[in-house]
Amino acid sequence: MTECSESIPDRNNFRILCLSSISITIANKPAKIVRKFLRKGDPEPSKDGIIRIYAKRFCPYCDRVIIAAYKKGIQFEVFHIDFQNKPEWFILKNPEESVPLLDHNGKLVIDSRVIIEYLDETFPETSILSKDSYLRAKQRYYALKLEPICETIKQMTYSTKLTGNITVLALELATAEQLLQSPFYSGEVPSLPDIILFPFIHRLHIIRQFIRDNFLDHYFPNNYPKLVKWFIAMRNMPEIRAVQEPEHHLRAYLISKTTDFNTKVGSDLNSLTPVSWKLLNDSVVQYRLNNAQN
């Protein structure tokens, strides 16, 4: 099973957009990314020593790795795999068929967090994790604590409004709000936990643009002000702006993945009564109190 449950839309306009090159400078060092789309019948890229990231387009887990690689200012290429029509060599190379997959001189590394740490240790010139062992441990712990939030967001569905277990989402976001004690989870500059969470909060931000949803429009900004401020700051970071797909492309993709489960899911916040709203708020408040006492 891949980290991303979504598959790339089989549309010519999306396919063409993947065949692009972008050249920017980060931390006074050129970081060039070549994006290519690969499907069954396409040959495996030549082994020329360049770092390769095999990914799915619009996959938040893959976005983590691309953001980290850009932040480090290293030269790499991104290959978007068509998971509905995978190249044979990709299956042989990666029996788990998991993305993101890093290929560094024939060394294969999977799992987004593991890949980020591998890049950080292999190319130490620009660090993502702190050099201080205690701060590094804290960053890893925060990244671990934020992972369930990402999983919850991934499980949400939407059509005209957000559906799924909204109560669980509210509680998970309360954890993210509580952990945020500085501009970023890592202090004054973004690090591993910030990179882990951002693509998923960004997804909620894009979904909010094409649905009218009480949770996203009202509950989120009113109950998670630190998270909102953090998202705005992250969105304007050079490494984010450099690698982020144009928002209208991501929006078109997410619209193509809309579901119509809102009539079947009983935990939809948009249909909650005033009493249920109060219960949800009470649950979040009690959750925060319990965590503050621990």
TrEMBL record:
BP terms from Gene Ontology: glutathione metabolic process
EC id: 1.20.4.2, 1.8.5.1, 2.5.1.18
SUPFAM superfamilies listed in its UniProt record: GST C-terminal domain-like (SSF47616), Thioredoxin-like (SSF52833)
Superkingdom of origin: Eukaryota
Pfam families reported for this sequence: GST_C_2, GST_N_3
Gene Ontology molecular-function annotations: glutathione dehydrogenase (ascorbate) activity; glutathione transferase activity; methylarsonate reductase activity
Keywords: Oxidoreductase, Transferase
Function: Exhibits glutathione-dependent thiol transferase activity. Has high dehydroascorbate reductase activity and may contribute to the recycling of ascorbic acid. Participates in the biotransformation of inorganic arsenic and reduces monomethylarsonic acid (MMA).
Family listed: Belongs to the GST superfamily. Omega family.
Protein's name in the database: Glutathione S-transferase omega
Source organism of this protein record: Acanthocheilonema viteae
